[in-house]
Predict the 3D structure of the following.
Amino acid sequence: EPHDSYAEIFDALRRANTVFVAFCQDMWRYISAELIVQRAVAGEVGSSTMPQKVNPIHFENAEGNLGLANAMFTFFSSKLPVSRLQRDLSDSTVERNFGAAFGHCLVAYKAVMTGLSRVSVGEDAARRELKAHPEVVAEGLQTILRREKAAEPYERLSKLTRGRRVTAGDLAGFIDGLKLKPSVKAELKRLSPLTYTGLAGKLASGRR
């Protein structure tokens, strides 16, 4: 067996682990912004210097172990298909370390599950973030304007919102200046960053 099947398995695991790494990094960021809140566990050390903290240790642990596993999988995949004159027995010592790579994966997957069991949505922080950025409804505004065949909806909203701090009043003024039926203007004004999700719900559920 030329070990090609090993390389296929390790490459597939490496790709899956890369997704997990990105997930752990995103969770770390959401936790630091308090958009995700961790439940404190009695007796668990949150920080070696700041006793008030609840560090995202499980996601950090998972990220580190996934990095180690992927480094090993990368080496396995590049090393094992090559054999000098088909007489090279250096693969045997490499194969003895397969368990270490899978072990790092197992520790990481368990850490992710533990981390997920201790988190909830930081509703207060999320609400503050959304209220501070009413421009997120620009997508919904331009979609309705396209439906109404308004001229250059994307360009007009880009001019209003791109690279600028926009207020709810700015959006209301923009809507008032549009040549649309009152019912459509009312529909536009009902769009709120607290409730607008576009097609996210349908896409997440697989419905079209």
Summary: Residues 42 and 54 are 11 Å apart (CA to CA). Strands lie at 36-38, 119-121. The first helix runs from residue 4 to 32. The chain has ten helices and two strands.
